[in-house]
Amino acid sequence: xxxxxxxxxxxxxxxxxxxxxxxxxxxxxxxxxxxxxxxxxxxxxxxxxxxxxxxxxxxxxxxxxxxxxxxxxxxxxxxxxxxxxxxxxxxxxxxxxxxxxxxxxxxxxxxxxxxxxxxxxxxxxxxxx
Length: 129
What we know:
This protein is mostly beta strands.
């Protein structure tokens, strides 16, 4: 059974940091790109960051560049999202998702959350002003 389990969300003040984790199981981790997506109330789901499990290539949405860092521990089958300098507009449910890797797939999937195959249940991040 495929599982993606997010953790690490919570309430933080603006300017603070959080680290999200996504633990994967039930599929060949190295064959997949793993992404973080978010959805705020009344908004569409949007891509935040993706990483290729095979070569570690990271991709970021413009609105998080310089603030968020994605990384992967293939031995633990876990992807992390380090979020620094958080802003109130970063408040959302953050989801981890996976889809089969192909060259530059991280960039592709970032803009197409509907193309992701597997999804976690999400973790809520709330940034207070």
